[in-house]
Amino acid sequence: MLVLEKNALSEEIESLVNQFGKERSALLQILQAIQRKHKHISDFAQQEVARMMEIHPVEVNSVVSFYSFLCTQPKGRNIVRLCQTISCDMAGKEKVEETVQRELGIKFGQTTKDKRITLEFTNCLGMCDQGPAMLVNEKVYTKLDPETAINILNEIK
Amino acid sequence: MELEKIKKKMRSGPVLFSEYKLGEGVKKALQLGRENILFELKDSGLKGRGGAGFPTATKWMLSGASLSDKKFIVCNADEGEPGTFKDRVLLLEYPELVFEGMIIGGYTIGAKEGILYLRGEYEYILKSLEDFLEMLRKDKLLGNNILGNENFSFNITIRLGSGAYVCGEETALIESLEGYRGEPRNRPPYPVNTGYLGHPTVVNNVETLASVPHIILKGGEWFKKHGTDKSTGSKLFSVSGDCDKPGVYELPWGTSIAELLKVVEAKNTKAVQVGGASGICLPKSQFNRVLGYEDAATGGSIIVFNESRNMLKVLKNFMEFFVEESCGQCTPCRIGNIKLLEAIEKIENNDFTFSYINNLKELGRTMQLASKCGLGQSSPNSFISILENFKDEIFGLNGKGKNNG
Ligand SMILES: Cc1cc2nc3c(=O)[nH]c(=O)nc-3n(C[C@H](O)[C@H](O)[C@H](O)COP(=O)(O)O)c2cc1C
Ligand code: SF4
Ligand code: FES
pTM for this structure? Predict the structure, then answer.
């Protein structure tokens, strides 16, 4: 990472710490904000959070590693999470899965070369009456079939 | 009113989906005072809708009696049990009930702060909830001196989860709010005494809180006219799977599985999973059982399977869920769920003995006893009930072969 980028990230984290506070109970909110913007929480970001909140970096890492929506490695600009739980599975999740993989040329768990999309599975999204369901970043899409799923993915930048 | 715009569907039901006007519950509560609120709540027999079924009045009394300068009301909107989506409907379409339940709770136990823990997957609901809170502040239903009452100020903040089912467990939820890994704590101490940041904390499910304004307004007597002696009131059922009309239904407790299947227009039903992945799977012969704390208890998840479904595949999906979602803190759950999943794979490959399967059912019973929290205590439920209730299909004992789905 360039020094300039590092400085910018440090400043950003500093302002998050100012906004949410230095108490431990603010940690998850701060990490969520970093994740939302950068799609991952780098080692450097974790160290900076630890330094500014005056806790050990391992404490920060232990929290990041616990939550499935937080990660340490860079992902695509858009994270697509297809529900893999039973009701969506029965509603045709497998067909959507296969078509999406073929169309993007990657498997679930991978990111497209142009960093546009990361494909992931997730557990029940609370949309079981309208499956198959998926999240694109924080937006939810329901009643998918292979065609609608592809159309949605083609539209995201 | 803005509220009308948010409402997407006209719903109707005996309690939660009955008519309600914004602010009436809080207004009545402030007139009644703490003692009478607790009386009505106790009289109603309301029990927690999040799964465990603890009497709500008792929970509120215990935390009300705790001495502390700070107390909290936490609304558990982590709704992650497979097949459950009723809290999403309440949050989107009836936020007034949920928030007023929290405000009334705050008034009753002496808390000034409420926190709604919204699962990360529901981030798309956040904006409408924040807007609603803003409206409540304008209407003096939230903030300083609520409805002009000098002795009552209450605020609500919303915090997001980050994709961990176990954070729905109340002590894991508190850990998460405090900025830690969502690992359940030993209980006791219970949150009513030692909760968020060490202060007395009431954690209630979205639906539990949403029932409160109706009870306060119309009385405990009215509430318990619905349902059964042990399960008073109504319940929201989230129905999905093989039926023509999936969705959220408000029905009185005591409704039988067969009746529910009729309502949702399910045909050729072979099995019904009651209570989500942590619940039990009932075969046709048990469809006369009734939904309620005294018989088939559930947080509301109902998944319907028709004759074409392969129950071993269903079970595998559930066990994969638990292997992923176990927090890994205690051995029976961390290792046990992996062993149960391995067994399913062995059955799939026809590479098992019946004594091995019986040992694993025994392991399941050990997990139910020895796991630290409800996740590991209930994850063997579907393993045991599916293998017992569908053994002919799964082990090919009826001659149809095991892969008939
Ligand atoms: C693994 C696990 C997940 C849970 N998830 C939820 C949940 O998403 N929502 C909820 O209200 N309760 C959930 N619970 C139950 C809570 O621990 C707690 O009993 C409940 O929030 C209390 O509220 P109530 O008394 O109003 O039901 C879960 C329990 C366990 C063991
Ligand atoms: S039972 Fe499972 S989820 Fe609960 S504390 Fe133990 S390992 Fe964690
Ligand atoms: S099973 Fe996919 S949203 Fe619930």
Answer: 0.96
